[in-house]
Amino acid sequence: MNSIMINLFYLLAALLFVMGIKGLTRPKTAVRGNRLAALGMLLAIVITLLDRQVIHYEIVFAGLAVGTLIGVLMAIKVQMTSMPQMVAILNGLGGGASLGVAAASYFSVLASGTELSGVTLVIAKSAIMLAVLIGAVTFSGSAVAFGKLQEVLPGQVIGFSGMKFINLGLLLASVAVIFLLVNNQLGSGGFLLLVGLALLLGGTLVMPIGGADMPVVIALLNAYSGIAAAAAGFIMGNNVLIISGALVGASGLILTKIMCVAMNRSLLNVLFGKMVASDGPTIDADEVYQGKVTSASPDEVSMMLEDAQRVVIVPGFGLAMAQAQHAVRELADTLVGRGAIVEFAIHPVAGRMPGHMNVLLAEAEIDYEAMKTMEQSNPNFSKTDVVLVIGANDVTNPMAREDKGSPIYGMPILNVDEAKSVVIIKRSLSPGFAGLPNPLFAMDNAVMLFGDGKQAIMDLTAVLHEAA
Amino acid sequence: MEAFIVLLSLFALAVFLGVELITKVPPTLHTPLMSGSNAISGITIVGAILAAGSGDESSTVVPLLGFVAIVFATINVVAGFMVTNRMLKMFKRRG
């Protein structure tokens, strides 16, 4: 097939991607959208296989077969609670593939020379180096993010205050090496040095970032994997790579921005972890809680729920940890069966990635109409009889609204304390990721139901059934 | 140089198109959006196939890198679309 036909088909594939993403804007059209995008990908792959440049089909088909086998197994086996890890791996592989393509281009130019010259050659080389840098950062950064999410690596903030200077140093060193490589002052040794520096940079960038900031990191790595693909597109002058890479890059950047707004922090602040500032008066947990925390038994909480007309459930990462989504669905069904209105109020950064809670609740067959955003939920808490907070902490902390000196001041929260009663299901009074006590727990209208999330919810459902 | 400007224009327009499209995606679908767009970024597979199959006889490095890139990109594409499909079907069930 000639190159004009090939490029026209690539354009068609890119249009299918656009239509696919458009489909994702509504739950009803989303499945079809995803299939359109997959069709676009199939088209792009088949067209590439028909390209006359491709001679060695054995390597290509072997790679496709191995990749398909692993991919199918991963997609079938993965649990919905592990979706953040899955997306981290896939981001990393996308970045790794771009790195591989860029490195292959570099070595083939080095080995066989190129017909390019002048400005065009400089542009091609710069694109290669950029794809290497971004691809390698995405690859190693995602590997570290996966390790943290899977709890192979400690999820807490690792590192020291000088970390940002190391990151800056690595970045500047990489840029310097790129400059020398493009100017032909360094050979393949310099190229390997660049790969090494970039891989190290990805690791040191993500290493200091703690668990609750993971939604931002995952979204950012998603953007990087797109930009890396677009950079690879500039190397080959390939329209479909550039368009799709740009779309994915935009998607990741928007999600990153949404997550940052939801935490009232700038991207730089998240990346360099200013949240753990230890200066300023530390708030004593005992002072906040002493003598003011009421604990309740499942029976007492059930009595509150029996009379409730309107119940709002606030899920957090603890729900995923306890695998409590199915138990929550049964409780919600029981309450609805008794005539109550049940809604789910989901904070944008609840869980470990954007939309994490929604996927878990959807897995338990909870209607997406019942899942409300923070903006939809907040005006209605004052009309709510009982709020059940399950495994969420910082996103309900009234200090974010009231305490100007608090590190989380200004972060938008779910105003659960406006409800008639709040029940917090939690193992203990231990603080959330921000390390702050939560004055909510000590409020007059709040009670604690101590215990494992899943067990506590099952107990509540059982007591409600007995009462019926 | 001219070709580069055309490609750069394409990139810039696609970024704007992406921003317009993605701001309309509701928060409920953010996880499938990430895995789905991630699968799309596996389009590097096109570059990987060209690198692995283009018949560079002079070295073994290039086909090897191409092979690894194909495997990575294929996993990205196959697992990405399949797992997105799995998630989206759950949202459809009661909707």
Report on this structure.
The complex is a heterodimer of chains A (468) and B (95). Chain A is 60% helix and 7% strand. With 468 residues, chain A is an alpha/beta fold. Chain A folds into 3 domains: 1-77; 82-273, no CATH class; 285-467, Rossmann fold. The longest helix of chain A is centred in the first third of the chain and has 32 residues, at 118-149. Chain B has a domain at 28-90. Chain B has 4 helices and no strands. Chain B has helices at residues 2-22, 30-41, 44-53, 61-93. The chains are: A alpha/beta (468), B mainly alpha (95).
Number of strands of chain A: 6
Taking pLDDT < 50 over at least 5 consecutive residues as the criterion, the unreliable ranges of chain A are 275-280
Total number of distinct structural domains of chain A: 3
The percentage of residues in β strands of chain B lies in: under 5%
Sequence of strands across the biggest β-sheet of chain A: 3-2-1-4-5-6
Quick rundown:
Chain A is an alpha/beta fold and 468 residues long. Chain A has helices spanning 3-23, 27-49, 57-77, 83-112, 118-149, 163-182, 188-206, 214-236, 239-263, 267-272, 285-289, 298-306, 317-321, 325-337, 356-363, 374-377, 399-402, 453-467; strands at 310-315, 341-346, 371-373, 386-390, 421-426, 446-450.
Secondary-structure map:
The complex is a heterodimer of chains A (468) and B (95).
Chain A: H1 3-23, H2 27-49, H3 57-77, H4 83-112, H5 118-149, H6 163-182, H7 188-206, H8 214-236, H9 239-263, H10 267-272, H11 285-289, H12 298-306, E1 310-315, H13 317-321, H14 325-337, E2 341-346, H15 356-363, E3 371-373, H16 374-377, E4 386-390, H17 399-402, E5 421-426, E6 446-450, H18 453-467
Parallel strand pairs in A: 1-2, 1-4, 2-3, 4-5, 5-6
Helix pairs in contact in A: 1-2, 1-9, 4-5, 4-8, 5-6, 5-7, 5-8, 6-7, 8-9, 12-18, 14-18
Chain B: H1 2-22, H2 30-41, H3 44-53, H4 61-93
Helix pairs in contact in B: 2-4, 3-4
